[in-house]
Amino acid sequence: MRYSLYPGCTLKTKAKVFEETALEAAEALGLEMVELEEWQCCGAVYPLAKDEYFPLLSPVRSLAAAGERGEKLVTLCAACHHVFKRANHAIKGDREAREKVTGYLEVDYAGDVEVVHYLEVLKNEVGFDRIREKVKSPLEGKKLAAYYGCLLLRPEKEMHFDDPENPTILEDFIRSLGAEAVQYPYRTDCCGAYLSITEEGLARDTVGKILKSAQRNGVEGLVVACPLCHYNLAKYQESLTDTRGGEGIPVHYFTELLAQALAEGPAEEERT
Amino acid sequence: MKRVGVFVCWCGSNIAATVDIERVIAAARKMPNVVYASDNKYMCSELGQASIRESIEKENITRVVIASCSPRMHENTFRKTVAAAGLNPFYLEIANIREHCSWVHKEGEVGTVKAISLVRTAVAKAARNEPLTPSSLQITKRALVIGAGIAGIQAALDIADSGYQVDLVEKEPSIGGRMAQLDKTFPTLDCSACILTPKMVDVAQHDNITLHTYSVVEKVDGYVGNFTATIRKKSRGIDMEKCTGCGICYEKCPVKVDSEFEAGMAKRRAIYVPFPQAVPNKPVIDRENCRYFTQGKCKVCQKLCPAGAVDYELEDEVLTVEYGAIVVATGFDILDLQAYGEYGYGKHPDVLTSLEFERLVNASGPTGGKILRPSDGKPPRTVAFIQCVGSRDQAKGKAYCSKVCCMYTAKHAILLREKVPGAKPIVFYIDVRTPGKDYEEFYNRATDEYGATYIRGQVGKVYPEGDRLIIRGVDSLSARPVELEVDMVVLAVAVTARADAAGVGRMLGITTNAHQFFNEAHPKLRPVETHSAGIYLAGMCQGPKDIPEAVAQASAAAVKVVGLLNKDSLVGNPTVANVDESMCSGCLECTQVCPYDAIKEKSITERRGRETLTRTVAEVNEGLCQGCGACSVACRPGANNLKGFTNEQILAEVDAVCL
Amino acid sequence: MKVTTDTICSDLLKEVEEYSGEKVASCIQCGKCSGGCPMLEAMDLLPHQVMRLAQLGLKEDIMKSKTLWVCASCFTCAARCQRDLDLSKVMEGFRVIQLRQKGGNTMHPRQLTPEQLKDAPQQAIISGFRKYSK
After folding, report:
1. Residue A65 domain boundaries
2. Residue B375 sits in which domain range?
3. Same domain for A166 and A112?
4. Does residue A267 fall inside a structural domain?
5. Phi, psi of A122 (to 5 degrees)
6. Structural domain ending residue among the three candidates B472, B496, B520
7. Is pLDDT at B392 greater than 90 in this prediction?
8. DSSP for residue B553
C-alpha cells in the first residue's frame, strides 16, 4: 500500500533522524511512503480561539494537496498529527470554518483525507504481531518506557488515537521489538512543550518529574513520537544529576528503535 | 341547528384584570350558533355552576362553551355541571383564557383579542361536538410486581396485605436486590440484612404472594384492568419440591466464577445459592458455566444430592397470567468505569467501587467484614473516597446527581474508622448533599466524631507508587494542590438505569427519559403513575433514590394498585380513536405509529354487488387507546378519527382562528 | 478585586464565550481541572479559580494572572472536565484578549538565546510565537 508522508519542518532540520529511520523501517516493512510534494508547516499549534481561521489555512492547504493524491496521509511528528486531525475535524464539523478557509484558499476540501500516525499504521495496518516476526535484532533485556505527551492523545473526541488516560499503543510497540515495556505514572503528563522557550524553569520542573518517575521505575530509555518532547526530555536531564551522578535516560524516537530492531546483524548498542 | 351558550369566567382578577370580559361577551354573541352569552366572577363556584345549569334549561342550550382556566383544572367539574343540566358531558368545550391568555399577556388589548379568538375556536368546535359514552371495563383482581428488591418487596407486601393476589417476579435466583448487598444503612447504621431479611421471609410466607424467582417477564399485552403477561420461569436445574436446601451440592462443584452478589470480590460455584439469607434458599445451576452443560460431563452435584433434586433435564416453564395492575420495580446498575482511566479502576486492585467496598465491610462478605486491601490483605491506614465518579458529569458520565453517594460515603468513612481503629478517611467531594431527615447530622458525625477530612475538589489522577496509591488533586477552597499517598481508593460510582430498561419500557408501553429511567406521569403530582394506565413505578428504576424513598414510593404504588383493584369496573376514556371501516384502505400505517400498541389489523367480509370480498382494515382496542391522536394524523384516507377531536372539529377550530 | 453587582453583571462571560466557544457559566467548581494540571505549581490562579473569577466578572484579576501564560494547552483538564468544558480554549480566549491589543505580544524574537536558536526544534519556536504573539 502507498501512503503520502508528511514530514513537517522539524523532521527536515533538528529531527532528521526521526524521518530517516521512519523511511528505513518502512522499507523493511514493505510500506511505500512517498513524501507529499506540496507541503508546508502545519502551524505547530492548533488555533484554540473560536474566531481564528487564519492558522487553519496552512494545514488545510497541505491536506487539500494530499487529497489530490487519494492516499492516506501519514504523519510522524505528534504536533503535525494533532493539527491535521483537528483541522480536518473543524473543516468537517464547522461550516463557517470550511467556507472561510476553503474559500480563501480556493480549494475544494471537505475534511476527508484520512490522517494516520505512523504508529497507527504499525498497529492497524502492519500489526504488532507481524512486526514481532520481522524483527531481526530484538531489543531483548532493554527496559523501555513510553512517553506519550499530550498531542497524540487529547482531545480524544478529535484524535481517536488511544485511551487518553491509559494508552497502550507505545507499550505494545515496545514489546513487539522484544524489549520490556515499563509503566510509570507520568507517561501522559505534559513535558512543558514550548514553555521551554519562555519559562525554562517551569519546563525543567515538569521534565524533572517525568524523568525522576521513570528513573524510580527502572526505565533505561524513553520512547517518544514528538520532536519537542524529545528536545525537552533530553535537555533537562540535569534534573537527574543529584540522584544519578550525571547519568541520564536516553530518549529515542520510536522509529529509531524500530529501524534498529528490523535491521540485520547484531543490534547496535546505541544509535543516538 | 346547534344552540351554543358561552359562559365567560372572571376568575376574580386573574382573567378580568387583563381581558375585557364585556367585549368578549359582545363578540361571542355575534358568533355563529351562539344563542346566549354571560359572565360570572367565579364560574366554578356553586353559584356560577347553578347559573350555567339554569341558562341551559331556560335558553334551550344544546352545546356549552366555558371560557375560563385550563381544562386540566376544571374540565371534570364543568362536565358534571353540563350533565346535571341533562346534556351529554362531552357537549362541553373549554376555552382556556387564563393560562393560555391572561396569565401570559399583561397588555389588555392583546389579551382581549386573543380571548375572543380562543372563544371563537371553542364555539366552532362545540357546534360539532357529538355525544360520547364511556365504555365499562372489567378488572382482573391480581397484581404483577416486576423486580424483588426492597421496592418490589414492599409493594408486593402492601398489595397482598390489602387482600389481593400478587405475583412477584425476580430475574435473579433470590429476592432482595441491591439492598441485600449493602452492609449498614444511613443515617441510623442499622444492618441492611437485619431489616431486609424479615421482609424477604414475609414475602415467601405470604398467602397472597406467589414468588417467581429466576424468572423474567417476556411479554405484556392488554390494558388497565386486563393485562396478560407471559412469564418465563427459567429452569434452575433443581426440583424445588425435593430440594431441602442442605447445601451439599455446591460444596464439591469444580467450577468457580465471580460472584455477582459479592460484586466480583469473591467466587461462587456453578451451582450456588447467591447468599446465605437467600429466598428461596435453594440453589440454581448457572448453565453458562456449569461443566455438565458446557462440556457434557461432571454431574458431581447430582451424585452428591441426598434428595435427588438435581435434574439437568428440567426445562423452562412459561406461564401466561392475567393481571389488573402492574408495578415496575426493576432497580438500577452502576456505571461502567471504562471511560475513567484517570482513577485507575481495573488497573490497581486497591481501587474499588463503593459497592465492592460495601461487600468488604459486610460481615458475611469475602473478608468476613474485615476491611483489607485486595492487593496484599493488609488493613488500609488511609483511604480516599472519591465522590461523583460519573455523576454530575456531562462529558463522560451522567449529568444527574446520583443522590445516595454523599450519604453512603459518609457511612463508609464512619465504618472505616469503626473497623480499622486509627484509620484515616479522606473524602473528595464537589458538594455534600444531605437533604433528608437526620442526614446532615449523620454527615457531621463523620467529620466531627470519626475524623473524616473532606476535601472539596475532584481528583485529577490516581496512580501507584510502590505498594501505595498516589492521588493528585486540589483543594479548591484553599486553592492548594493536593498530593496524597493512600492505601485504598473507593469510587462513589454513578447509579444508572438497568441496561435493558428501554426494552422493558417498550414491552410495557411506558417511556424512559434520556438516561433510561422510567418516566412518571407527572413529576410532582403523579410520581408513581406512568402514562400507561394501570402501570406504576417504584424504586430506582424511576430515578436515583435512597431506601426510605424507594419504600415510600413502593407503598404509594401499592395504594394506587389497591385503589384500582377495589373498583368493580373501570370507566373507559371515550375520546379514543375510531376507524371508519368503509374508508380504511388497510395500509396499517396507524399500527406503526401507535405508541400503545392499541391498533391491530382485522379482516372484514363485505358484499359488493354479487361478490363477497375479504379485506384488511385497522381496529382500535379502546381499552389500550390513550387518545393521543397519532394514528389519525398518520391516516392517509382520513378514516381514522379521534372521537371528540375529529378532523372536522380540528379544521373548524383552525378556520375559526384563520378565516 | 472585590465582587460587586457591576462585576457580576458585566459581559465577561459573554466575551470569553465569544473567543473560546466555551460556556464558562456551566462550571460547577469541582476542581478536577486543577487536580490534574501539570503546571499547577507555577500558577498564581489555579484553573478552577480562573473559571470562578470569570463567572464573577473579575476580568482584571484574570488578565494580570501568570496562569494564562503558563498554561501549555496540554488538554488534560479538557479531557477530564465533568461539564465538557475545554479550559485550554478558555485560557486561549483570555490570552487573545491581551494579545490583540496594541503591544500585547508577550514573546519577542530578541529574547531567544543563541543556544535556543541552535538547538530548539522549529516546532517549539513556531508554537511559542503562535501562542505568545499575534
Report:
1. 2-118
2. 333-496
3. no
4. no
5. -60, -40
6. B496
7. yes
8. H
Chain A, nearest residue to B339 by Cα: A163
How is chain C split among helix, strand and coil, in percent rounded to 5? Answer: 60, 0, 40
The CATH code of the domain that includes B630 is 3.30.70.3270
What is the DSSP-derived secondary structure letter of residue B452? Answer: P
* Domains identified in chain B, total number: 5
Nearest CA of chain C to the CA of B340: how many Å?
A: 9
Residue B349 in grid coordinates: 486492585
The residue with cell 501507584 is B464
Sign of the CA dihedral with A258 first, then A259, A264, and A266 last: negative
Q: Scan for cell 383544572, then name that residue.
A: B73
Strands (E), B189-291: 190-191, 209-212, 215-223, 226-233, 256-258, 267-269, 271-272, 284-285
Q: What is the mean pLDDT of chain A?
A: 93
Among B341, B464, B470, the residue with its CB nearest the CB of A166 is B341
Q: List beta partners, residue B9.
A: B40
Q: Which three cell numbers stand for residue B120?
A: 371563537
Please give the backbone phi and psi of residue B398, each rounded to the nearest 5 degrees, phi first: -115, 135
Q: For residue A162, which amino acid is it?
A: D
- For residue B485, the chain A residues in CB contact (below 8 A) are none
Written as nine digits, the cell of B185 is 444503612
Amino acid code (one letter) for A226: C
**CB neighbour list of residue C132: distance below 8 Å, 6 or more residues apart:** A198, C69, C99, C105, C106, C107
pLDDT for A272 equals 47
C66 shares contact with chain A (CB less than 8 Å): no
Q: What is the pLDDT of residues A70-111, one digit of tens each?
A: 999 999 999 999 999 999 999 999 999 999 999 999 999 999
Chain B residues in contact with C82 (beta carbon < 8 A): 388, 392-397, 458
Instruction: Determine whether the interchain pair A165/B464 forms a contact, defined as Cβ–Cβ distance below 8 Å.
Output: no
* Strand bridging mode B468-475 / B480-486: antiparallel
Alpha-carbon distance of B606 to B616, in angstroms, equals 11
User: Residue A264: which of A140, A135, A175 has the closest Cα?
Assistant: A135
Q: Is the peptide bond before B280 cis (omega within 30 degrees of 0)?
A: yes
Contacts of B472 in chain C (CB under 8 A): 35-36
> Of B467, B496, B525, which closes a domain?
B496
Low-confidence spans in chain C with pLDDT less than 70: none
- Which positions ≥6 away from A50 have C-beta within 8 Å? C18, C19, C20, C21, C89, C93
Retrieve residue B73's grid coordinates: 383544572
Do B268 and B378 belong to one domain? no
Neighbours of chain A (3+ CB pairs under 8 A): B, C
- Residues with Cβ within 8 Å of B219's Cβ and at least 6 positions away in sequence, in order, are B229, B230, B507
Q: Which residue, chain included where needed, has cell 504536533?
A: A79
Residues A62/A39, Cβ–Cβ less than 8 Å = yes
Which of chain C's residues have a Cβ under 8 Å away from the Cβ of B473?
Answer: 31-32, 34-36
In a 3-state reduction of DSSP, which class is residue B552? helix
Which numeric CATH code is attached to C5-101? 1.10.1060
Amino acid (one-letter) located at C38 = P
Q: Which of C1, C133, C129 is nearest to C64 (CA)?
A: C1
What is the rounded distance in angstroms from the CA atom of residue A74 to the CA atom of residue B211?
A: 63
Q: Which of C70, C120, C127 sits opposite A44 (nearest CB)?
A: C127
Report the C-alpha gap between B407 and B446 in whole angstroms: 10
Q: How confident is the model at residue B633 (pLDDT cuts 50, 70, 90)?
A: very high
Question: Where in chain C are the domains?
Answer: 5-101, 105-134
Per-residue model confidence as pLDDT tens digits over B268-310 = 999 999 999 999 999 999 999 999 999 999 999 999 999 999 9
Q: What residue type is C25 in one-letter code?
A: A
Q: Could you tell me the three cell numbers for A179?
A: 524489549
